[in-house]
Amino acid sequence: MKIGEHRMRYSTSIHNMILKGERLYVAWYHEGVRVLDVANPTQPRQVAHFNTFRETDPHRADGAFEGAIGIRVPGDGYVYVVDTSRGLLIFNEP
What we know:
Elements: E1 16-20, E2 23-27, E3 33-37, E4 45-50, E5 68-72, E6 78-83, E7 87-92
Antiparallel strand pairs: 1-2, 2-3, 3-4, 5-6, 6-7
C-alpha cells in the first residue's frame, strides 16, 4: 500500500537515490538534485535542490534521460553528482 508521494513534472523521472538517515538524496534527470526529508514518509518534503540541467550546456540533448544520473553521499560532508552534460558536480552536504 502506498503511504506517500513526491512528484515533480510528470515528464521527468528519477534515476538514482540514496537514503542517509532521514534524508533522501535523489538524482532526478532534468530536475537535477533533490534532497527530501522523509522523517514522515507519508509527507516527504524537499529541503534542498540544485538544478543541474541547463538547456544551454554544450552537447546537451533533448532526451528524457539527460541531466543528473548518479549521486553519492559517502559521509565526508559532500554530495557527488554525475550529470550527463556537465560531468562531476560536488556540493556541500546540506
